[in-house]
Specification:
This protein has 257 residues and is α/β, with parallel strands linked by helices. The chain has one domain: Thiamin diphosphate (ThDP)-binding fold, Pyr/PP domains (Rossmann fold, 3-Layer(aba) Sandwich). The protein has a seven-stranded mixed β-sheet, with helices on both faces.
Length: 257
Amino acid sequence: MAIAEPKIVYQRPTSLATRVTHYCPGCTHGVAHRLIAEVLDEMELREKTIGVAPVGCSVFAYNYFDHDYVEAAHGRAPAMATGIKRMLPKNTVYTYQGDGDLASIGMAEIMHAAARGENITVVFINNAIYGMTGGQMAPTTLPGMVTTSSPGGRDIESMGYPVRMAEILSTLDGAGYVVRRSLHDPNNIRKAKKAIRLAFETQERGLGFSLVELLSSCPTNWKLSPVDALQFIEDKMIPMFPLGDYKVNPEIGKLRV
């Protein structure tokens, strides 16, 4: 019986650098990187793409993608992306931001970029905690969730409620595509990739601001195993941050699969 010749069925995207990341075991930042890189390759956007990395766990993103990248101050990635896109309107420009960066120090930047309808794409990683700086409470931290700055758990009465960014940004007229997906299992990862592609399609068609919020795990700061951290997303995060499409430009809606 003849042995079939082996064939490649999957390989590293060209847009993803061959480098070991600094992310903790079980962190799903790496999954998000892979999805972005695959989409850029499939859409043949790599040669004209410029990414913007702010401060946070995403601070070294420029090392992990094999396309042009710049570094922004903490929370200021949307402002830098705005300037780049206005000067280079034919380029594809995106930011890669965490929840502490985007929803706290960068809240004004993201709100006004969306309100202006800046034709940029934002990939927003929501892991409900400050990851890089030691696990402090973030704007997205869940009620009762223990962090280094809320050791007794997030108390709603004194610390307020979590901020739902997809819902807030979807109310702004300049937003063309705002959705929330998750990275906790293969089915949802496939849906996340489709959403990232549609976000870039929104930009390529000049339909305004686009954002994909991705629920992501942080086993180290959650003090959970990688497997338990994925279950935490399903059991705890999704009820607080429901998955779904919050705003979809009708022109992009026609392309949904």
